Q: What sequence folds into this?
């Protein structure tokens, strides 16, 4: 199999993950803002601005990583950075013992945060890094064939 | 095909571009949906206080709680989990975790008189359990229920000025 397909599959997978994750938050910004508030990290003044804009940044990254060869690497970098920030926020609240909804794939809801979320995000970060360093990864994989 | 759009540009610039497109789209989308859009600013930290007041529960500050905490008449009720209560609570408070209120309340009830002023609290102003517990107690017939919105967080700050 051509290793380029692996990268292409990663792009589609990550793109879909971000599009699905953003869609519910775009539809229900008030519930997402509430989730952000429960994280107890952002000050009042930043909660709604983040709830209004962040889901769309996710959605734009999701579209671009699939559809644009010019923006795929920047979309991958952006996803990597967002996932890193999400992981710090989730880990911080697990450690200080806050029992809150993740707000990851839905705006609010029942999915409480846990180390599983951090692990899953770590996996996505790995895929994003593969796409970001596509050329080097392809050289490596082609060398193995 | 060598126009300026086909040049790759700097990775950082392109990433920033995506962020800006996302933010602008979000702002535009929020503005164009007046029925579902949200305001850019909400006083989140005060939302519980507003809710409690609207429902007719007096809201107490840490200083007011300190004055009555151990007067033998006001009864403080800790709505957090028992494990959190064990790690530290307001002196004189009884543990009544809201998540297990149905099981624990019959026991706590024996120590209360109906007219006694009750004060509920939880971890801080982002937890709803104090307010939920206040509602529960009101439904049980206790008429004098107040909420200490700042909760444990405010209590610790009050103790160490």
A:
């Amino acid at each position: 199999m051509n290793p380029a397909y692996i990268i292409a599959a990663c792009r589609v997978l990550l793109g879909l993950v971000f599009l699905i994750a953003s869609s519910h938050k775009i539809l229900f910004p008030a519930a997402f803002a509430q989730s952000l508030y429960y994280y107890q990290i952002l000050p009042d003044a930043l909660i709604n601005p983040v709830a209004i804009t962040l889901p769309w940044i996710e959605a734009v990254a999701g579209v671009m990583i699939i559809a644009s060869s010019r923006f795929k690497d920047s979309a991958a970098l952006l996803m990597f950075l967002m996932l890193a920030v999400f992981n710090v926020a989730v880990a911080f609240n697990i450690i200080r013992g806050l029992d809150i909804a993740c707000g990851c794939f839905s705006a609010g809801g029942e999915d409480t945060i846990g180390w599983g979320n951090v692990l899953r995000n770590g996996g996505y970060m790995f895929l994003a890094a593969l796409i970001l360093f596509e050329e080097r990864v392809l050289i490596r994989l082609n060398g193995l064939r | 095909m060598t126009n300026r759009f086909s040049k790759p540009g700097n990775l950082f610039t392109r990433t920033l571009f995506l962020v800006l497109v996302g933010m602008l789209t979000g702002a535009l989308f929020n503005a164009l949906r007046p029925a579902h859009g949200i305001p850019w600013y909400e006083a989140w930290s005060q939302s519980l206080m507003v809710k409690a007041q609207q429902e007719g529960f007096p809201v107490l500050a840490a200083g007011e709680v300190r004055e009555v905490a151990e007067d033998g008449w006001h009864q403080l009720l800790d709505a957090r989990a028992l494990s959190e209560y064990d790690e530290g609570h307001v002196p004189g408070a009884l543990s009544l975790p809201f998540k297990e209120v149905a099981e624990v309340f019959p026991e706590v009830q024996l120590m209360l008189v109906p007219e006694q002023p009750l004060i509920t609290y939880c971890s801080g102003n982002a937890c709803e359990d104090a307010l939920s517990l206040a509602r529960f107690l009101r439904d049980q017939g206790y008429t004098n229920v107040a909420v200490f919105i700042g909760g444990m967080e405010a209590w610790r700050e009050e103790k160490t000025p």
